[in-house]
Design a protein that fits this description.
alpha/beta; 2,3-Dihydroxybiphenyl 1,2-Dioxygenase, domain 1; 7-stranded mixed β-sheet; 2 helices; 7 strands; 16% helix
Length: 123
């Protein structure tokens, strides 16, 4: 199963303070809009998403169809194929996608330790 680019999505209280902190660790703004209160910060191949007021908790995030540079990667496993495989393996998908749909979509699940996972396809 190809899950695409990986990042940690952090629910932050103050995006400006979080941006300044991660810049001190060598991260640079890579994507997003600080005025919309979301940024993706990059350090080498490592990505951290900063989201103020969008999520209640931190998430492990995968983006099918993207590489770590945010560029399209082909071939890739469509999120509907991923969802079908997860369900076949007995994994509970909390936010399901219509299997007849196409294009961008997202699903969520939780690992056995309560860590939330977001699989978010943008194409």
């Amino acid at each position: 199963m190809k899950l695409g680019a990986f990042s940690v999505s952090l629910s932050v209280k103050d995006i400006h303070a979080s941006k300044a902190f991660y810049q001190k660790l060598g991260f640079e703004a890579f994507a997003g809009d600080i005025e919309q209160k979301w940024l993706v910060m990059k350090n080498d191949d490592h990505l951290i998403g900063l989201f103020e007021g969008m999520f209640e908790e931190n998430l492990l995030t995968f983006n099918p169809g993207w590489d770590q540079e945010g560029k399209n990667k082909d071939p890739f496993d469509d999120i509907r194929t991923i969802q079908k495989r997860l369900k076949t393996q007995g994994i509970q998908v909390e936010k399901e996608i219509d299997p007849a749909s196409a294009g961008p979509a997202s699903l969520s699940l939780t690992d056995p330790d309560g860590n939330r996972i977001l699989i978010d396809q943008h194409r």
